[in-house]
Protein 1
Amino acid sequence: VRDVSLAKSEYIPSEKTILKVQNLHDDKELFRYCTLPEILKYVEFFTGPNIMAMHTMLINKPPDMDKKTSRHPMHQDLHYFPFRPSNLIVCAWTAMEHTDRNNGCLAVLPGTHKLPLKPHDYPQWEGGVNTMYHGIQDYDQDHARVHLVMEKGDTVFFHPLLIHGSGWNQTQGFRKVISCHFASADCHYIDVKGTSQENIEKEIVETAREFFGNANTTDLKDFIMSHAQLVKGERTNF
Ligand SMILES: O=C(O)CCC(=O)C(=O)O
């Protein structure tokens, strides 16, 4: 994924042009993150013993002097997922270097994991918004907010309904993190048609077809299923 500020320039793959790498299962070394015992021993508290890696990312937030396109709007990750129950899903997000408000650390609204899933859409930002960076339009702006200052290797585990986002990167460096959404293999898929998730399903299916020639992807479930991998225990229900 390229940052929206570079979308129209010539594409030369490098640290400076890639905002995000997804589907790390295609890379043995990067996917090893999702199998680390140091991570899975905490994941298991949320998912139980049968653990699937559902969605993986390495995010390389670029320096952003003025456009603020590097911000990630406040959102709930469950918006992107066609499976439930939410209490058996957890995100592990690991800082690959020091992160604080200067380079766009995570910002979270504590306690919001008890809220239902809210409708998401693109925010109206002047400088532009990155592809699929949907946000919640109507969250409580006065809600207490915590900025997670983290050191390299620190990991935070959080619920898929927790409202969170990240700020713009005002430094010259690229802020790197690696993350994986894990779910219990006891989870089940849902059909998101007719729900607030229909907009993201449409976008993901169109993107899978257009950019990856993935003609068999007809819904969000197909897309997620093609990347899901068992990392511990047994593949029970999924
Ligand atoms: O790492 C970030 O900047 C935020 C990532 C995030 O919230 C997400 O991808 O859901």
Note: The first strand starts at residue 20 and ends at 22.
Protein 2
Amino acid sequence: MGKLDGKVAIITGAAQGMGEAHARRFVAEGAKVVLTDLNEERGQAIAKELGDNALFIRHDVTSPAEWKQVLQQAEQAFGTVTVLVNNAGILGPLVETTEFDEDEYLKVCAVNQHSQFYGMKTVIPSMQKAGGGAIVNISSTAGMVSIVGAPNLAYVGSKFASRGMTKHVAVQYGPDNIRVNSVHPGYIKTPMMAAATDADGGGITAQVPLRRMSDPDEVSSLVLFLASDDSSYISGMEHVIDGGLTAQ
Ligand SMILES: NC(=O)c1ccc[n+]([C@@H]2O[C@H](COP(=O)([O-])OP(=O)(O)OC[C@H]3O[C@@H](n4cnc5c(N)ncnc54)[C@H](O)[C@@H]3O)[C@@H](O)[C@H]2O)c1
């Protein structure tokens, strides 16, 4: 028996990195999974590999209209949606606040923060029809503290916003049996991280008490737990997974 038998999940940003790892784990645990991303080629290939319980939809998470289409196609393929993982995100440029271009600021907020609002607004009615659900919003340690090396204030601001919106929606929809939690990863080995650092992690592993970066699959274990009935009384909370980074 899988931990997600009978669940229908939407995972955004699932064509690579952590989103891909979550999609693979969810299907292995019995869920039917809709993978969405801008990267159609990789997304389609992963969904094909995962078989009949996976469907890829090209999706820009900053578009409310595309969210509606994603929900419609997901319900058509698999029925009401019971899990949403708002994972898609971007770093934006590594710049100081006084040098930060306004349009770049808005773009980071749109992808990291506004998308999570659109996703929750769109999918909650489907969860209400299903009698409940679990939402996992992917924030960051940058949504807990402003770590040295955080790329810019929009990244930190949008990840703090994700944490706050999580609590707001958890309180509002708890009576509908909808649980909402945020996940705050530290340094995880993904293409995003590779683009931001050099091969040894830019020396950042020395900052981490466990002295290593995490594999995406280690984060999948936490996301799986929060999506599954194993966490049936956990809602409105932030879950940090950072090898001890922010404990210092
Ligand atoms: N890697 C880390 O160390 C780390 C740490 C903390 C938090 N995070 C967060 O975890 C999440 C996943 O990060 P990752 O490292 O796997 O990143 P990644 O860059 O490897 O993958 C992100 C995916 O999101 C997709 N995406 C970007 N913009 C999109 C849009 N507008 N619409 C749809 N899809 C879009 C990309 O195409 C990509 O496939 C992000 O929210 C990120 O901020 C990452």
Note: The mean pLDDT is 96.
Protein 3
Amino acid sequence: MLAEHLLHTAGAIERVGSVEAGTTHSDFDPLENKRQISLSASVLPVDWKGCKVNLIDVPGYPDFIGDLHGVARVVESMIIVAEAKADLDVGFDLAWEAADAAGLGRAIFVNKLERDNADYEGLLNTLRARFGTRIVPLHLPLGKQTAFCGVVDVLTMKAYKGKDRESHAEGIPAELAAEAASLREKLIDAAAEADDDLAMKYLGGEELTAEEIYRGLKAGVQSGHIVPVLVGSAASGVGCGLLLDEIVNLLPSPVDKVHEFDGKRLEPDPNAPLVAFVFKSTADPYVGKVNYIRVFSGTLKVDDHVDNTTQEHDERVHNLYFVRGKHQEPAAAVSAGDICAAAKLQNTKTGDTLAAPKSKVVLPPVQFPEPIYRIAIRPVAKTDEDKLGPALSKLLEEDPTLRYVREAALHQEILEGMGDIHLENVIDKLKTRFGVNVTIEDAKVPYRETIRGKAQAQGRHKRQTGGKGQFGDCWIRLEPLPRGSGFEFANEVVGGAIPKNFIPAVEKGIRETMEQGFLAGYPVVDVKATVYDGSYHEV
Ligand SMILES: Nc1nc2c(ncn2[C@@H]2O[C@H](COP(=O)(O)OP(=O)(O)OP(=O)(O)O)[C@@H](O)[C@H]2O)c(=O)[nH]1
Ligand SMILES: [Mg+2]
């Protein structure tokens, strides 16, 4: 809802949609409407005070956390939305960690302040206990709980009453004046601390100008020493105009924060050689593949030939768009700092770098979290079985937190992901997008067997079935390997006791035997087998 009100406040949309009616611009997928949660990141650009701001709305539900990791790589800052209650949701921690890992500036927007159980002080205490003096309130709620009606800006010492476009400034009510003044002092302390020149001036007893305070705050936000706290209600749109103001005033922009990867600065210069990064891909049977791209350096143009330096092949850029949720607008050129989508690139996916031909810049891929949950699926009919493979390969490409494993030993096809809702949603996508029906079963545990001690044994093979006979004789030593090592084979035969050309057959025989263990028939792992002697004769 917050993104929806920000779009409305900025005049990008005329009507505010609702999550319940499935009419918001950020959650436009039918499955998002069905589940009433965001499943996927959406790009929602707005213009505010002469700046283009690419808002990217990312799901907060932990099962759908994959996109957060791709998006964190291509933005400069993150606004973490927290409900006005004393305990923080899991999604808050995941977002905070991702911002830390990517070195993003961040702000916290305290939401749902108009609810009758809203607990702003409780949340602020929790935040201060967790993050100490980094937590710097910029705002105060005007009115408590159901009487919440606006925001006091302690920097300008004004009260803003009303929702998004209707908000207007007034004087601060007398009962909040002392608290606002004390917060303002803390704000100025924080600003002065973030900039050496300002600290000197401030400690020398001089007053800082509004511009200087902003400069200090901005430096503090960028370094991560200051996390401003803003307040509002995404249901009504209170606080949205001020949030947009602070995005522009305080949060680092692509020009403020120059990205560096592997020690290389990616200058935000439209005339520099192109370096761009694919942070998300979607696969649709009708639209085809769409890649979401952040341009770091240079300009990406329609009809450009670019190198996909990650996959080491070239791409021709035909279809370039600016997107707002599901809406697309053709783009002729997209310059450094901006975000766009490209359709029908031949062989490009999330985590790939697109760069000027011969530039050879390869940005590191995104580290997505490892799957933590698994289910088994079974196609319902023969037609489902035939369609399953191609459909899954499309879904695997758009969702890097999804894995597909065919467990031959268990006769099961396994999906691995971030949680039960994540995998249920994959099943829904298979059905609605690709017409593939599957049933769900518990995933059997893929047990493995191993050995604990060393042993050696002789294997002899003799066969005489008319014509040429067969003879084999070898001594093998088995020993355990550390967990996760798999299988090692060594040959210590000397003096031609077994001719070299028979050694691969020995290894093959051991591998085949290991497919079914002695204890319960599960595959045997973490074993070293050494063939060290044997005999041989012509038959
Ligand atoms: N009372 C109240 N309800 C709100 C407010 N903001 C959002 N909601 C409701 O909370 C629910 C979730 O809102 P969303 O906007 O989808 O929240 P979100 O943070 O985008 O959630 P995910 O993206 O699914 O993690 C919806 O039912 C909204 O109507 C608010 O300020 N006050
Ligand atoms: Mg959402």
Note: Residues 373-441 form a domain with the Alpha-Beta Plaits fold (CATH 3.30.70.870).
